[in-house]
Design goal:
By secondary structure, this protein is an alpha/beta fold. The chain has three domains: 109-178 and 393-587, Rossmann fold (3-Layer(aba) Sandwich), CATH 3.40.50; 181-388, Dimethylsulfoxide Reductase, domain 2 (3-Layer(aba) Sandwich), CATH 3.40.228.10; 620-740, Barwin-like endoglucanases. Helices cover 35% and strands 16% of the residues. The protein has 31 helices and 28 strands. It has a seven-stranded mixed β-sheet with strand order 3-2-16-15-14-4-5, sandwiched between helices. It has a six-stranded mixed β-barrel with strand order 21-27-24-26-25-28. Strands 10-7-6-12-13 form a five-stranded parallel β-sheet. Strand 4, helix 8 and strand 5 (172-174) form a beta-alpha-beta unit. One ligand MGD binds next to helix 11, helix 20, strand 21 and strand 22.
Amino acid sequence: MADPDLPSSGGGWPLIDGWARATLSPNGPRLWQTLNHKSACLSCAWGTGGQNGGFRDELGEPLQRCLKSVEAIAAELQPAVDPNVFAGRSLHELQQLSSAACDRLGRLDRPLIRREGKGHYEPIGWEEVFSLLEAAFRCPPERLASYSSGRSSNEAAYLLQLMLRALGSNNLADCSDLCHAPSSIGLRQALGSGTSNVNLEGLHQADCVVLVGSNAPANHPRLMNELIRLRERGGTVIVINPVLEVGLQRFGSPAFPIRSLLQGSEIASICLQPIPGSDTAVFLGIQKALLEQGGIAWELVKGCSEGWEGLIAQLEATPWEAITACCGLSREELELCAARLRASRAAVFAWAMGITHHANGVDNVQAIVNTAVLSGHIGRPGAGTMPIRGHSNVQGFGSMGVTVHLGPELRQALEQLLGQPLSPRQGYDTRALIEAADAGSVDTLFCLGGNLFGANPDSTQAARALGRIDTVAYLATKPNTGHFHGLGARQTLLLPVFNRFETPHRTTVESGNNWVRLNDPGRSHLRSDQLRSEVHILVELAHRLLGDTPIAWSRLHDSAYVRELIARTVPGYGPMAGIDASRREFEVQGRVLSEPRFATPSGRARLAATSLPELTLPPPEHFGGLAAGERGLVLSLITARSYGQHNTVVYKEGDSYRGMPHRHTILMNRDDLARAGWRAHQRVDVQGEAGVLEGVEIIPGEIRAGAALMFYPEANVLMRAVCDPRSGTPAFKRVPVLVRG
Ligand SMILES: Nc1nc2c(c(=O)[nH]1)N[C@H]1C(S)=C(S)[C@@H](COP(=O)(O)OP(=O)(O)OC[C@H]3O[C@@H](n4cnc5c(=O)[nH]c(N)nc54)[C@H](O)[C@@H]3O)O[C@H]1N2
Ligand SMILES: Nc1nc2c(c(=O)[nH]1)N[C@H]1C(S)=C(S)[C@@H](COP(=O)(O)OP(=O)(O)OC[C@H]3O[C@@H](n4cnc5c(=O)[nH]c(N)nc54)[C@H](O)[C@@H]3O)O[C@H]1N2
Ligand code: SF4
Ligand SMILES: [Mo]
């Protein structure tokens, strides 16, 4: 039942309105100047900008820039934080600020320190910063760790891991541990390579996209242009999502003002609305239907994969009732998907957090690969598997070795470069880091961007754990909640850095489609001379700690030399050599597949049976039960992004596309409201395993019964960290909660 008060399509006029407002704002001219700067978009990993100019993609197509990039730039163009904020407001006061209010304080333009026992951040000079950091980094290497968020450059990422590994630490936690780690691990296990094997050109050749667990209209808006074009050329879009996201039904794109903007273009040809967390069952059902319909691509399966016998045996042995009971979809729906896949010439399977944020995230990814191989849609142009990455350079961080799952090739190259074996200790990923810190096993934490406090489950534990670390250093462009809640025991440093379009030297980033972009040097609008480039900070510190052997650390102040080392050591990055002179951007080699030869030892894709997940929910007593006369429902909570935020940074309070007017809301199915006897807009308490949020407004909407949706990061107080054992990624999309009212 469509709600007449909600928009009937995603995108549309609000986008034009947003562009117009941004253009007419006092910062309008500077904003446009920045949009045209030759550097990659700050926001998502779909990637645009770079040497082709601000509005062109890697194929040179124009008008490929979305409003999200404007939002991100506008935030970076704010004036500096008023010095009175840090001098005049106590930490206690700053801790009361919402994420949006923190961001609106402005840009950091001087180094700050909060010393033990003090209620304020106070200014500090860079010389003292470096001597404090140097002393803090001289702790035992296993007690030294970093966390990073994929917003920085390849050069900074490479130096970060090189410095930590040279010091003997493998504790390179990264936001990807909370994000696409199951994709990297699952794809590497199944196909030998952990990234997308389709590029933009390939996507243009596809006639089917299976889009799973992604709200692309909000989070990867330019992917919508590709889906519109695919539908226009007669292709099929199959959407799998427990929420009927309006922008996945229809989307109005400013890239097609006449055809699409006014009424919106139809996106989904088929929508499946499974139970959250059941995607493995959905794909098992599609595979079983393919088998029954005679739709298995036997030549590919037998000639180019291994392990298929076990998978086929599983399909034969698993009854339809087990599959449909697990995912809540009908056999007919799954058969229809299989038939569409059979009828398609070339299909791309694309997914985001709806697949990875589960206790069986790696299995979900294996199930997608199994489906791609069985249906014959992989290993040729236009077909394949495409994780849709998050942060603009998160994939580059992985390529540069900022990971606790270092590949053997890069390990060997780094050992050669450093002239020493790397530590054999297993490093801490993000969750392991929090647990280790909570246990008092971490002395020094260096954060290259991000919001470790805000991004983690169980916010109470995250703050406590960070509080047990001696020294915490944050490199950031703007203040965030983590800087006020994630305080180290002895000292917390808050260090201002240039963003991508301001950095005074060249940098590079890698998109989720394996495209490496070159960013021109830039200038900041801030008058302070206290901002530093991340590369500068890392090299200065490494030089103080390690001198000039065996690597000439001081020479690495020249970022072109960093690129030279990257070209020499990082697999697939050979074309980086000479990029400063040629300005030629490139696709990382060996990732995109045009034939079914995979990067596994045997050259074959590894198929494997994937077990059906157990999707039970605990009884109300598990949460402490209900008071007399109280009504309650146990639901499976999805924590997701609104249309107006970038991760822990909230830009807009409301989400008009989902009809959620502010952040303190819970989206629920009308049948669940009826079941509990609740009304729309009534206030309820949401009790999780780790905390409670009181007085939350109920918003009825197009979400599967039994499920609910709330916004991250506010909802992170609710959940305990339940993680996928193989990737360490938390089950952010299936949080058991008791709703009481
Ligand atoms: N504007 C903007 N852009 C962003 C970001 C941002 O915050 N704002 N963040 C960036 C980052 S780091 C990332 S990782 C990406 C995130 O991009 P997305 O993954 O699109 O973001 P989420 O909001 O986490 O939503 C995931 C979708 O998964 C669905 N879902 C939930 N559970 C399930 C399930 O069990 N199965 C299936 N099939 N679907 C499910 C939800 O309903 C939702 O539509 O976006 C990146 N781009
Ligand atoms: N409940 C729940 N929790 C989640 C998720 C979810 O869906 N639900 N999603 C998870 C996912 S997918 C991710 S990726 C994580 C995100 O986790 P993070 O990456 O840790 O968080 P962000 O909010 O993206 O970090 C934003 C901060 O980065 C800093 N910054 C911005 N640009 C730069 C720069 O150029 N350099 C430096 N040094 N700093 C910069 C700014 O200070 C900004 O405040 O959260 C995870 N947590
Ligand atoms: S889709 Fe992503 S990369 Fe492209 S302009 Fe929008 S935010 Fe930037
Ligand atoms: Mo992410």
